[in-house]
Amino acid sequence: MEGREYMGRDTLVKEFKGRHDHKDYIKRGIKTENMFIDEAFKLGYQVEVASDSQNMSDHIDLILMKGDETFTVDVKARRTGTDKSKGFDDLWTVVEFKNTMGNSGWLYGKCDYFVFEQEDEYVFANSEELRELCHEVVDLNDKVKYFREANYKVWGRSYQNKKDLISRIEMSKILQLKSTFNWKKSLDFSTRVCDNSILTTIKDNNMSVIKGNAHWASITSPNTTFDSDGVWTVDVGNLDEKNKKIAQADGISIKNKGDDRGDFVTIKRKVRRKDGNLNKAPEVVDAQKRAMIGTLIGNGSEVNVLYSTYEWEFGGKSGVSADLRAIQVTNLVPYNVDADADDAFGVVEDGFVSKEADSEVSFAS
């Protein structure tokens, strides 16, 4: 990027000629870009706003530079779900294969990263990896009539004489891509930014960290047994006296069912809030505070769990519950997806070995 003049903290994205279609959406997009610029400055990046031609033709919004690092991004504002009355939906996002003119959509832009705004963070997806993912999981031959049916299928506004082709994919698939990383929004009062993950918690009157062993953790995928929208939940068991005192001081009920959990507390967070908006998924980090993406937490794993407390009243009863904010896994017990196979089989030393097996499977021990 030799010869470029990187701007200071007064850098702003302004609406330019040709961006007058869908004015409300464009206005929200510009606001999101300016908020992202502010976050970049706080992380020590210099920022240049892309030219109009770069924006329109190459789908590049911003150029970021820090030391020897330079990369381009296309920033995407938070999206509502299929029912706009329920607010933002951070579990799914929209990808554009063709634009309203029938030309290549933003998915084929020349930026290095697509940045998806979430409630508490920005998710960076490598553009090449995202394109490969979309071509793998979306059926481009299955065109549906309604946007609400466009999960891994395609939909367009031909009824408005437009030639666009878009689809909805789950954010969880983007988070599992090799090069994906995230920036925490600094407005999140409970965390500071470091290595794109949780660094430290700022203890206040209703936030605590409790240590124990994880049991029945549903974090990668929410538990939908009793709630169709899902609940992220974990039982933190085998609590010692120190951690039982933490729970008791917060008013959290300690249970004991006479099983492997010993004295335990249940900490959870609903996917959907009462106002219809979606909650942010709890963050999961390892012992070095690096993000763990798509890792299943097996029973007995040693964890530190960050939670906040809230009071509730329902049906004449009241109490205090714990809202799951983040989990640090300090000693992972791998989740055994097939315990029967583990018990039934032994290793056959001279037997067939799959060429696709890059790592030891659960029963090969």
Beta-strand percentage? 25-35%
Derived structural class? alpha+beta
Q: Would you identify the regions where 5 or more consecutive residues have pLDDT less than 50? A: 1-9, 16-21, 187-205, 355-365
Query: Quick one: biggest sheet?
Result: 6 strands, mixed
Name the helicity range: 10-25%
- Using the coordinates shown, work out and report the CATH topology of the largest domain: Trna Endonuclease, Chain: A, domain 1
Q: Helix count, per DSSP?
A: 6
Number of separate structural domains: 2
List the secondary-structure elements in sequence, H or E.
Answer: HEHEEEEEHEHEEEEEHEEEEH
Architecture per CATH nomenclature, i.e. the level-2 architecture of the largest domain = 3-Layer(aba) Sandwich
Q: Number of DSSP strands?
A: 16
Class of the largest domain in CATH? Alpha Beta
Distance between the termini: 52 Å
Overall, the morphology is: globular
Describe this protein's structure.
Helix content is 16%, strand content 30%. By secondary structure, it is of the alpha+beta class. The protein has two domains: 23-183, 3-Layer(aba) Sandwich (Trna Endonuclease, Chain: A, domain 1), CATH 3.40.1350.10; 189-339, Beta Barrel (OB fold (Dihydrolipoamide Acetyltransferase, E2P)), CATH 2.40.50.140. The strands form four sheets. The chain has a six-stranded mixed beta sheet with strand order 1-2-3-5-6-8. It is globular.
